[in-house]
What does this fold into?
Amino acid sequence: MRNFKSTFSIFAIAFLMAVVLFSSCKPKKIVTQAPVAQATVQESPKPAPVKEADTDEDGIPDSKDNCPNKAGTSANEGCPEIIAAEPSFNYKNILFEFNSSVLKTSSYQVLDEIAREMKKYPSMRFYLNGHSSAEGTEARNMTLSVDRATAVRTYLVSAGINANNLIAKGFGESMPINTNDSEAARQLNRRVEIKKM
It folds into this structure.
């Protein structure tokens, strides 16, 4: 019986301690609603830009390209730049009187036109080739042809062409463009021809 009393006392003490301990703790609230998690807003990925067709591969989309099948520039709305063919500068109608290196008045207009064209190509160089008809001695005709080429050079320099771009040469009577058997034919041989180098 003694064992029973001691076991009972241990139980009673343990029970009392448990009651004391539990009564001193604060009661806990029961959570009736789950906490609301903050939703993180994620931006939906932007679609990749649609690459427009560029048939001629000039960097200008076909929708903005006026010439979609030919490579061009944006400055020309997608079309190729039109490069004007440079003039030949092969002028043959600068004529002179018999035994003279003085320019005919009718040549001034032609030379002014030539000077305007030459100014568009300031680095281009030119031959001024003087010729004569077959009248007179060969030596005289050579001198006359050089003087004619020099007269054209002087005119063009005074019109603003760089003198270093003009080479005056004389060929005398060696390169006729017509026969020398009539005055009309000989007049055509008294000339200066301008050719680009």
